[in-house]
Design a protein that fits this description.
Layout lengths: L2 H33 L4 H6 L4 H24 L4 H30 L3 H4 L7 H21 L1
Helix pairs in contact: 1-3, 1-4, 3-4, 3-6, 4-6
């Protein structure tokens, strides 16, 4: 295989993984959007709500960790790697959502209430760390 072929193949793999990663990030964003009252993009952009912003960014960081671990664990097998990345990313999003619902029911930290608060709340910090922790756990499980 020539250098040009190797570079083209690598660039194609990067583009494919990036596409899957972006799709998972968008799915993750809209899952959070479903969990809160109002439109998440508007709450972040117009209302500049720090709680909604922290929850969204932490969830997306967690998805990014899962995607990166899935790519790393693929061992150069592009088709399997892309499928694994998609599946593991979706599992991570589901687990994050279940964790948010569990914290709401068990601990009494409501995402819906948090995003109504104009100031950054301790509960948002706790849920944000939970997102990242779930992302790390899922990422390590993939590896």
């Amino acid at each position: 295989m020539t250098l040009l072929e190797t570079l083209a193949r690598g660039a194609g793999a990067i583009a494919a993984y990036a596409a899957v990663g972006v799709i998972l990030l968008i799915v993750g964003f809209y899952v959070i959007d479903l969990a809160i009252p109002g439109k998440l993009s508007s709450i972040i952009r117009s209302e500049r709500n720090p709680n909604a912003t922290l929850l969204a960014t932490s969830a997306l960081a967690a998805v990014g960790l899962i995607v990166a671990a899935s790519i790393w664990s693929s061992g150069g097998r592009l088709g399997e790697g892309l499928a694994g990345t998609a599946v593991f990313g979706l599992v991570g999003i589901v687990v994050q959502t279940v964790a948010m619902l569990a914290f709401d029911k068990v601990v009494g930290i409501s995402v819906r209430d948090l995003v109504k608060e104009p100031e950054l709340q301790p509960g948002a910090r706790l849920l944000a760390v939970t997102h990242v922790a779930i992302g790390l756990i899922t990422a390590v499980a993939v590896i």
